[in-house]
Amino acid sequence: MLQRLAAAVAASLFPLTLMTVAAPSSQAVPTAQTAYSCNITVPSRVAISSPYRTITASFSPGCLSYAQSGWWDLMHPTQGYEGSFNFDGASTDTEDWYDWSPLGTYSVRPDYAYDHNYDDMLQNSRTMTVKIGSRTSISSSRSGNYVTVKGTATRYSLNYETYRAWAGQKVVLRAKNCSSCSWRWVASPIADRYGRVSVKAYASTARYWRLSTADTSTTFGRTSSTVKR
Length: 229
Known about the structure:
The strands form five sheets. Strands 3-10-8-5-6 form a five-stranded mixed sheet. Strands 11, 12, 13 and 16 form a four-stranded antiparallel sheet that branches. It is mainly beta. 7% of the residues lie in helices and 48% in strands. It has two domains: 33-132, Immunoglobulin-like (Sandwich); 134-228, Immunoglobulin-like (Sandwich), CATH 2.60.40. It is built from two helices and 18 strands. It is elongated.
């Protein structure tokens, strides 16, 4: 009993130490140091098919939850600044685009983003390739064991502001025997001055057919719908 009393008296001679208990992590308030970010998503491919169109960008949940403002510049590799996307609280933003804007692969470059405390936020970068749009039509007919596939390749004309023949373009014809089978090459005709091609192929049983054009430095290729003949 005397030993317990002596220990209690001795403990009372030392100063009381205060201990701070950290708040649960679920109650922690995000700061710039937690490296949350405001990110943008843009179309990776933009096909020019009319004199005017809009390009829509969307913003990440980090923007919607924490950001006060954010800005990204659209930079052409040779022409420089061509537009921008701005986050101001909405989930999307649009950029007006005209067919006279330069073609090429643009950098969607971060400029700034800050939260409601005016602390900087992390941003991402994106690229966006702008080319002329194209179309590929297809039709087919059968005579005995032979199928004739016809098609027309066209692309948007910046001068005429409408689709015109894609003369001289290689058009690839492919076929497959069933819906789940792999496509195989059949022929690669060159479009005439009107953008037309025609291929006659042996096919004793019904097959699936399609035509396609490849991307070029200025134009996106296009695959036709599928026909069964």
